[in-house]
Amino acid sequence: MLKTKTFVKKTRSGGVMKIVREHYLRDDIWCGSEFCVECKQDSPVLQKEACIESNLCPFTHYLIPDTNVVLHQIDILEDPLIKNVIILQTVLQEVRHRSGPIYKRIKDIIHDAEKHFYTFTNEHHSETFIERLQAESANDRNDRAIRVAAKWYGEHLKNAPAAEELKIVLLTNDRGNKEKAEETGLIAHKCDEYVKSLIANPELVDRLALTSDDSNEITSSKLLFPEHLPLSKIQTGIKNNTFLQGTFRASRDNYLEATVFVHGEGEDSKEVLIQGLQNLNRAVHQDVVAVELLPRDQWVAPSSVVLQDEGPKDEDEADETETMLKSEASEAMLKPTGKVVGIIKRNWRPFCGMLSKSQIKEATRHLFTPADRRIPRIRVETRQAIALEGQRIMVAIDGWPKHSRYPNGHFVRNLGSAGDKETETEVLLLEHDVPHQAFSQAVLSFLPKMPWGITEEDMKKRLDLRQLCVCSVDPPGCTDIDDALHCRDLENGNLEVGVHIADVSHFIRPGNALDQEAASRGTTVYLCDKRIDMVPELLSSNLCSLRSNVDRFAFSCIWEVNHEAEILSTRFTKSVINSKASLTYAEAQMRIDDAHMNDDITRSLRGLNKLAKILKRKRIEKGALTLSSPEVRFHIDSETHDPIDLQTKELKETNSMVEEFMLLANISVAQKIYDEFSECALLRKHPAPPPSNYDILIKAAKSKNLEIHTDSAKALADSLDEAKLDGFSYLNTLLRILATRCMMQAVYFCSGMDSDFHHYGLASAIYTHFTSPIRRYADIIVHRLLAVAIGADCTYPDLMDKHKQSALCNNLNYRHKMSQYAQRASVAFHTQLFFKSRGNLNEDGFILFVRKNAIIILIPKFGLEGTVFFEHKDQKHSPSLTFNEEGPTLTVEKHTFSMFDKVKVTISLDASNIQHQKIRMALIEPVIPGVSVAAPVDGPVVKRPKLDR
Amino acid sequence: MAGLELLSDQGYRLDGRKPSELRKVQARMGVFAQADGSAYIEQGNTKALAVVYGPHEVRGSRSKTLHDRAVINCQYSMATFSTAERKRRPHGDRKSSEMSLHLKQTFEAAVLTQLYPRSQIDIYVKILQSDGGNYSACVNAATLAVIDAGIPMRDYVCACSAGFVEDTPLADLCHAEESGGGTSLALALLPRSGQIALLQMDARLHQDHLDTLIEAAMTACKGLSDVLDSVVRQHLQEVSVLTRD
Ligand SMILES: [Zn+2]
């Protein structure tokens, strides 16, 4: 049984514990080379034709990178040119320990058969395992292990036939390691030397990460930042509470300010404010850092100034802007303030952005400005600066030395011309981490084979509901129809209502590549002119989509209700349906309203509509909130795909009709799966917001002499209903928009991992997502759970594992959040395109928020929000501003702005910064001399928008 | 990245074993002269000592006596120094009582108790060093001790643990693997007949995985039985050399 020959014990001490572990050494670990005849391996990974053309190594060679090369030069290793690389187990373990994302990337490379990367388990090989010597550090031991393994390879393959030419090349950037390797007769090169010697691809040099050795030459010796503390000191500090650990969040508006979110137990989480370059100390957005609190007398208030890093021309130039931060602040506004003392974990990813070309001609070092304002500018070295001008590119950070104003990075890839619709879409998808590449062959291989049809076998397992008068109601142009409805009279006088949901889980089986891909995407992302599907189109727009007049599989939820919309019984079943009509909201509304129509579909719709109204009334009585957020819809030109008109979405009665039944189905299913699987039901909750969130809403209402109660959802809903002002009907909508901003995010969770299930917004004790499995992965899981609960499908291990499900929920929550951001970014981009083509527009708007130096305005016609600044850097004399916290009001010269004031603005596109084009608003009315502008007339004349609705 | 990688992509476990491989087993019988039978076993870093007394008259209360077979009395304990963390282990704590009970059930299934009616067999096992698979080491040590005592058994009882990592069953778990999360199962097998003497699992496991896990544990048990068999044969040889004249 045991193939071990030798038997070594490895001792690892940590703290007081002495851990003894066994460590078996084997002699059945193969070298993985095609040359070798000794090793009994099936399919060797390393090729015979292992030649990367290089001036330095003009012979067949296998590369062995050390840990730091893998950690820092992963972009190089990922290049298709680099093949036949031996990754030692020692290296892999160290990488795993030091960086999760890089570990994943190197593993992806190893799995790619084209790359011929071989993992050699050297730590368990009887001839390459070494024990740590006395007084040898763990790092030195690992370096030695790498050299021993490289040496072993050389000797092992020397005996192989036809391998005379073959050499092993060690890649290391560590001088000591290189010297020691050369002493023992190994060929060792520094990574950059090797890459520069490559004949085939000179551009690869651009992707080299700058190592600390290089950066010495390019920056002044002056120390700009305090030293980071070593991890051991940080850990001690955190233990005795002198330091706090938290996530660094850079401010979007002010590059000299950030907050560190310190995770505490329960309510204990808090935020620490960090101000000034020195205190920020090279932390980058999303890093996990250690902070030290400053003494109380040095605490400051968050500045409400907007500051962007224009980048001093000269590195040595002192940052004078920092003094601007120091504003007078009342005692109450002071926040715990601290400074970053060390970095616990970097969270760098490749960033999209643009190159700001150096002023000096022929220079190879340039500054890169990321699209995300929270990320500092990055210094990169490239020879293609001219070619990259005006292009969106991707850059990765390599490091941030303490004497450098900016982090160092390297070019990863070119995304295309800035301003180009395709490129910008790509950028916003990348920036929001939306997986959007085409589905792989592996994924597509799990699709049903066409032509697809329903078999006898299928019919046996399903209820045949094809004779029912089912129809679907969706927005116009919808091709992924997940839901359809029916309603009919029963003989006993009651009504039967059915919600039929596309049976996606029939087509996506647990665990296969298709399922994994869908789980990873988590949701379909809808951009203004593009949809990024969660599942391949064949399913989303065809086989799963409940189109009219075709037989489709459905998962049906059928209730018997009386005329008071009380549920008498609930039934779930897998079914086959044949939708009689795919209607739009408007079409459905027309049928309901048209007294002449009296066909089955119309009667079914009327029944549904009647019940929906009762359901909605009941829900609102229970305290459900009806909130509002202006949603924008573009009319896209069918040829140029440019937006030609912009309007807010109009809600019809039928929208709410469909919504009501979806809610009902979701609640019924949530209850069912929770009853059946109390530990692993996937549910959705919406926590009640902390009372302080409502402050702004209460203040705003008070300024209009209205009262908003926020003790409970019911109180809030009722007081919102009563908050009306004669002659200002839009006020109620504004209050609801504001209330929406006070809410928390709704999240998915696993019932076994949480105890609070309440859905605040819907005032429901339990809730889940069941009704959109084509575009949300959570619904697929819920379908599977429900299918098991009713015995229609079998279970599988991961479905019942609450930890795995909890991890899945985290991913889904993340993807949903990112998809929302991506959608908003897409709307913003299209708004810009729209204004670019339309020129200036003069519109009426309302003040949504009042800030210290600006007012934020909502244009109801477009659902567009914009900021009017009253301070400009280039202006000689700014107007006098008085900000009153209590109102809140802002007095500019002699005019006082308060929330909800009606104003008139001119809207235009500010394209001065190509990377951050933005909508600019300028005040027309009220007229304030020196502040407001005259209404421009060059824009096309527009009809005065109807505001009162 | 937290946690240990229990199984590498190349298919090696933390200590270098492949998923189905057992740890190194070393065993000796007759280590303790006063007792009727005794054995010492090392399975990797888990070390156990088993001592058997009997069959003898039932001690203590007579009411325990069974008229058709022998009573088996098991006692399990762990040495204070057996784990990395030194702690006092009072006698009869919940864990050891449970383990004692499991051992009793295992050996009631294996020993031909009906040959010794109205008598008692005592089996004492002590874990000297613990590194996962305590139950299996105890069963294997006790088997050897029972054989050493010359008490007839249906077959060797071999025990082994098995666990699950990313859909791969691992045999004979060490402590790091046991505590690394995931479900583990202990199985005692009578290898020749393939009968299961005891099967114990505390955590939840999906039904789909149960068969593969039991399969893995059974294969491991069979492997162990070969090792135990060779230990017994070697012991016999040594003893017969000593008693030849
Ligand atoms: Zn070989």
UniProtKB/TrEMBL annotation, chain A:
GO molecular function, one term: endonuclease activity
Alphabetical keyword list: Acetylation, Cytoplasm, Endonuclease, Exonuclease, Exosome, Hydrolase, Magnesium, Manganese, Nuclease, Nucleus, Phosphoprotein, RNA-binding, rRNA processing
GO cellular component, one term: nucleoplasm
Domain RNB as annotated: residue spans: 462-792
Residue span(s) of domain PIN: 61-179
Cited Pfam families: OB_Dis3, PIN_4, RNB, Rrp44_CSD1, Rrp44_S1
Cofactor(s) the protein needs: Mg(2+); Mn(2+)
GO biological process: CUT catabolic process; nuclear mRNA surveillance of mRNA 3'-end processing; rRNA catabolic process; rRNA processing
Intracellular or extracellular location(s): Cytoplasm; Nucleus, Nucleolus; Nucleus, Nucleoplasm
Major location category of this protein: cytoplasm
Entry-linked PANTHER family: EXOSOME COMPLEX EXONUCLEASE RRP44 (PTHR23355:SF35), RIBONUCLEASE (PTHR23355)
Quaternary context: Component of the RNA exosome complex; within the complex interacts with EXOSC4, EXOSC7 and EXOSC9 of the exosome core complex (Exo-9). The catalytically inactive RNA exosome core complex (Exo-9) associates with the catalytic subunit EXOSC10/RRP6. Exo-9 may associate with DIS3 to form the nucleolar exosome complex, or DIS3L to form the cytoplasmic exosome complex. Exo-9 is formed by a hexameric base ring consisting of the heterodimers EXOSC4-EXOSC9, EXOSC5-EXOSC8 and EXOSC6-EXOSC7, and a cap ring consisting of EXOSC1, EXOSC2 and EXOSC3; DIS3 associates with the base ring of Exo-9.
Family per record: Belongs to the RNR ribonuclease family.
Protein name (record): Exosome complex exonuclease RRP44
Source taxonomy: Eukaryota, Metazoa, Chordata, Craniata, Vertebrata
From TrEMBL, chain B:
Signal peptide: none
GO cellular component term, pick one: nuclear exosome (RNase complex)
Primary residence: cytoplasm
Chain coiled-coil ranges: none
Keywords: Acetylation, Cytoplasm, Exosome, Nucleus, RNA-binding, rRNA processing
Any one GO MF annotation of this record: RNA binding
This protein's record includes keyword ATP-binding: no
Exoribonuclease phosphorolytic domain ranges (all copies): 21-152, 155-219
Subcellular location per the Swiss-Prot or TrEMBL entry: Cytoplasm; Nucleus, Nucleolus; Nucleus, Nucleoplasm
GO terms under biological process: nuclear mRNA surveillance; poly(A)-dependent snoRNA 3'-end processing; rRNA catabolic process; rRNA processing; U4 snRNA 3'-end processing
Gene3D superfamilies per the UniProt record, alphabetical: GHMP Kinase, N-terminal domain
Subunit structure, interactors included: Component of the RNA exosome core complex (Exo-9), composed of EXOSC1, EXOSC2, EXOSC3, EXOSC4, EXOSC5, EXOSC6, EXOSC7, EXOSC8 and EXOSC9; within the complex interacts with EXOSC2, EXOSC7 and EXOSC9. The catalytically inactive RNA exosome core complex (Exo-9) associates with the catalytic subunit EXOSC10/RRP6. Exo-9 may associate with DIS3 to form the nucleolar exosome complex, or DIS3L to form the cytoplasmic exosome complex.
Family per similarity comment: Belongs to the RNase PH family.
Protein name (record): Exosome complex component RRP41
Source organism per UniProt: Anguilla anguilla
Lineage start: Eukaryota, Metazoa, Chordata, Craniata, Vertebrata
